[in-house]
Design a protein that fits this description.
Length: 123
């Protein structure tokens, strides 16, 4: 059984963690960030781990069977669901940030303007 051989403090910690998972889903980084005073991410998180976790959290099934999905999740059934979801989250006190990660330089030889593109098509 869960909690066998544990003292009361460990059991409380485990139950608290399970409650956070039920509320916010099974992303350790996301759950930890909800406990941080000013939000943010745990300092030990690497950019690669954060990107992987972000992709996991935004996946279609992440919010299933969580309070996050019921109370704060995406709004479906509208052509403007992204706007409605953002508005709903802001009304509940969430903040947005602008995130523009560095990208690798373009790799290839595609034309950079319309006239070069049209020249390439004619060849």
């Amino acid at each position: 059984a869960v909690g066998e051989g544990m003292d009361n403090n460990d059991k409380e910690l485990l139950m608290s963690h399970m409650n956070f998972e039920k509320k916010f889903g099974q992303s350790a980084i996301f759950v930890t960030s909800t406990l941080m005073e000013e939000g943010g991410v745990p300092p030990s998180s690497s950019p690669a781990a954060l990107l992987k976790e972000a992709i996991h959290v935004i996946s279609c099934g992440y919010e299933d069977k969580t309070e996050w999905g019921l109370e704060l999740g995406w709004i479906y059934g509208s052509i403007t669901e992204d706007i409605l979801t953002g508005f709903k989250m802001h009304c509940r006190g969430w903040r947005s940030i602008y995130c523009m990660p560095k990208r690798a330089a373009f790799k290839g030889s595609a034309p950079i303007n319309l006239s070069d593109r049209l020249n390439q098509v004619l060849r």
